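hiii so um. not sure if this is the right channel but i have a protein structure encoded as tokens and i wanna go backwards to a sequence. like what aa goes where. can anyone help
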């Protein structure tokens, strides 16, 4: 997306901070970031922009995670309107970006509620493996619970990932996924591609390291699909 010259903001809402780490920043050393927004929900749009970090990719900035995010559940879960905090903040900078991607922890809590309330479309990557299918069931019921509370049915796409067509277990898991979730599942898959591991080792996007590899090609097709359903 950023590769196609559109301004993109990445929001790392996962206390583990893998995405922040990926771009060369240490989540445990970030003084400011997405946590600051929850502490000060009335920041101006300029102040919010100051919390974003540039990455080596043009047009791609990051609102970093920090370990403190893990404490939000305790601090916020009883406050009124706590689920809408991220949405309110992102609305203020919406005109500065073409797209905002929020990486969210897989467990139901304040962070997931905020991510769901702020987004137009939920992308649910699911490893083509049986344990992951169980995780999807939990994610699905979380989404329904939050949907009831927020009076929204979240448009979403389930994306089968790490697919290895030589492995029976993968093929079987993909079949079950399609049987159980039908057209909620993207019609294609993201294959296992070792170039992704090379890219994360090098801390650069796979689309920069290996623009021609199969995995990147699949993500490009996914992006095209998502853009067509979210317009
Ligand atoms: N399709 C793929 N093929 C091979 N390796 C992959 C693929 N997708 C991801 N990986 C590897 O797995 C790592 C973790 O992937 P990703 O961050 O998407 O997983 P995650 O489940 O969100 O992890 P976390 O729990 O850290 O948030 C990547 O950095 C990459 O090295
Ligand atoms: Mg993750």
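sure thing!! here u go:
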């Amino acid at each position: 997306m950023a590769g196609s010259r559109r301004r993109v903001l990445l929001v790392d809402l996962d206390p583990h901070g893998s995405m922040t780490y990926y771009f060369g920043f240490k989540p445990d050393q970030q003084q400011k970031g997405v946590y600051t927004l929850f502490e000060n929900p009335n920041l101006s749009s300029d102040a919010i922009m100051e919390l974003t970090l540039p990455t080596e990719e043009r047009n791609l900035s990051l609102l970093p995670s920090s370990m403190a995010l893990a404490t939000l559940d305790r601090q916020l879960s009883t406050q009124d309107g706590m689920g809408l905090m991220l949405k309110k903040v992102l609305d203020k900078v919406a005109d500065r970006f073409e797209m905002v991607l929020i990486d969210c922890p897989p467990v139901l809590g304040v962070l997931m509620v905020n991510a769901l309330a702020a987004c137009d479309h939920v992308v649910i990557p699911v490893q083509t493996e049986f344990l992951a299918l169980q995780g999807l069931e939990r994610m699905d019921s979380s989404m329904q619970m939050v949907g009831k509370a927020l009076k929204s049915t979240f448009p979403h796409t389930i994306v089968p990932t790490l697919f290895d067509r030589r492995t029976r277990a993968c093929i079987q898991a993909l079949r079950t996924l399609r049987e159980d979730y039908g057209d909620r599942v993207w019609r294609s898959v993201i294959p296992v591609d070792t170039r992704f591991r090379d890219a994360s080792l090098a801390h650069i996007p796979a689309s920069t390291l290996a623009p021609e590899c199969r995995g990147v090609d699949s993500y490009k097709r996914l992006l095209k699909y998502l853009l067509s359903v979210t317009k």
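oh and The mean pLDDT is 93.
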